[in-house]
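Example record

One chain of 259 residues, shown exactly as stored in the release files.
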Amino acid sequence: MHATPSPPGRAVARLGPALGAGAAVLALWYLLARSGAVAPGLLPSPAETLAALTEGVRSGVLAADLGASLTRAGQGFALGALAGSVLGFATGYVPWLSAAVTPVVSFLRPIPAIALVPLATAWFGIGETAKRLLIAYAVLLAVWLYVHDGVSRVPVSHLRAARSLGAPLHRRFTEVLLPAAAPALLAALRYGASVALLALVAAELGGADSGLAYRLQVDGQFLRVDRMFAGLIVLGLVGVLVDLLLAAAGRRLVHWSAA
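Predicted structure tokens for this chain:
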């Protein structure tokens, strides 16, 4: 019989491949930067990138930019996720509403948020409202797709059985529809969070005076590639952290799902 690994052992087993891949990427990055195949000013070494990141932390610029970006992305995500979830449940449950809404959403989905930056700026100016609405737009479309698909896949027989047993609409929703569609809702929120960060970049490039993407644009104008790499790493880490938090919350709340 094989001994059951302890919790720390299981954690190491799960993190091992990720840590190995990260070490391989760092080694390849270091070798490529030292090889001279790319001009030194265009490919900073890991040490130079870490120095730029440390400088941003010490100066307080990184904290200010991170706070501004998280606020915009969080507000836009909350608005878009709520609207997309409500619309997804409605269209997934009501066939005639799905027939009316699906073509409209299918038309809007290929239009990226960055293409709407000039229009949003013309309508709402360069303030925070335009940025939050751009992020909410992108998140709404992403969340709607997953939630609509999840709700529409709930077996009709389950809902009919609940109705035949006399369950009112609100109980059919809370005890049948919502638990069955919860894994799809979780996947929608995780995907919507990543979309919020993508839309955040488009929103901040469209006019901002703070934020991670704004700082990337400024550093790019001065060819501070080390700072650009540092900003990209922070964006990636934020995305990973948010996804891990949502996944952990999902495992606790949607414990019947393997997500």
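Notes: The chain has one domain: 46-253.
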